[in-house]
Design goal:
Blueprint (H helix, E strand, L loop, with lengths): L16 H7 L30 H4 L15 H14 L3 H11 L1 H11 L21 H6 L11
Helix pairs in contact: 4-5
Amino acid sequence: MDKNLMAPCGMNCSLCVHYQMMKNDLKKQGFNRKYCPGCIPRGENCTHMGDQCELLKNGRIRFCYECSDFPCRRLKGLDKRYRTKYHMSMIENLKDIQRNGIDAFLKSETEKWACPKCGEPICCHNGLCLHCELETLRTNKRYRWNEENH
């Protein structure tokens, strides 16, 4: 996993459905999803937080944990939604990066999110490997995590 794919809010963009759709060029296979190269690579400081945070908007911090208001109300709301729906905590991601460094965090993420069949990252938004389980998404475009498997 690439350091540049860690958004300031703690989102691991390499796990995002829009990034994975772009990486695998799935429009060619009939999926009509917006592509995204990630917040940092596309020049956005943070899709989720940058519009309301002056520090992020102006690039004065790299990660939200560098802010004296961490975790702010907006990040707590975003974190709750992602913990509930997508099995990911932005706040825990940020605390892990702060504690152990970005390299150790990314190594852990690579292991945690690896597809057991092919090793590619599983998508946090639906719980699918977009290499091995693409047919599941093709038959149910609104597919979300199957609790029995994850």
